Amino acid sequence: MKNNFFLIIIFLSIIFFTNKAYALENKILFKINNEIITSLDILNEIKYLKIINKELQNIESDKLYEISKNSLIREKIKKIELLKNFKKLEVNEKLVNNVLIGGFKKFNISSINELFEFLKKQKIDPETIKNKIEIEILWNQLIFYKYSNSLKIDREMIKNDLSDIKKQKEFLLSEIIFNLQIDEKLNKKFDNIKKTISDKSFSQAAIIHSISDTAKAGGELGWIRLSSMNPRIKDQITKISVGNFTDPIVIPGGFLILRVNQIRDTNKEIDLEKEIEQIVNEMKNNQLNQYSNIYYNKIKKDILINEY
Fold it and tell me: What are phi and psi of 164, to 5 degrees?
């Protein structure tokens, strides 16, 4: 086996000769059980990640290599597990197309044909991106099948909370989810993350340190209602101001850091039943995301990862 330094040399060679990538030998870099990751896969993943998150333009080459490698390994591990649970990795085409278009809406893309043309101009194979989305959709279905009966939602408590609220407070949040290696200290890990946030940004720290699927997007979670947060997170969030982030919060499967990007109050009259359903769905998604991380960490232990 060649060491990591050699892998980074291969990676840098690819970056310097992007326009002549066809002239380079496509080498196998990793084997995840029977799934392989090649030098060309790494190059294509970098192109894709740079498109969906501009912050990656400012990441050092060696870190960019690690991010792309980890992203592909995560995808391969999910695929391996999905093949144990589904006969074929097939998803309704309309659903896949809707998710694809939604993911690229910031580029003012409104149809699948426009998206495919856009990707081709970026020298990215549209089918590769389509396969990524299919894996994510099926993974989410698998997590739902396995854990839907474990979700804990108190509708009465939500209803009682909403009855006393005239304005809904919402937070635009970003997250970093991490866990600790054997003998790794929480304080040291948190200091390392804080240094990255200070030197670069929270978004780049999420890209580098977070094990959540949101890492690719810089940890962005979007607008979250205060009423949909569990009490521990609600308590932490309400103590910090815009631009600041929480201390690590213990969650199933690791630790969570949340940054408050913006806060707003919604003044519109609340449709109680509709609002309850929206909050229930948000709570379900939050819990399923945590179960997703737990399940991924569990199956990863049984996966054989070889470097070449």
Answer: -100, 5
What value, to the nearest 5°, has the Cα angle with vertex 140 and ends 214 and 201? 0
Q: What is the reported pTM?
A: 0.79
Bigger pLDDT: 8 vs 30:
30
pLDDT band at 12 (very low <50, low <70, confident <90, very high): very low
Question: What is the reported pLDDT for 1?
Answer: 43
Q: How far apart are CA 56 and CA 27, in angstroms?
A: 24
- Distance CA(64)–CA(71), nearest Å, equals 10
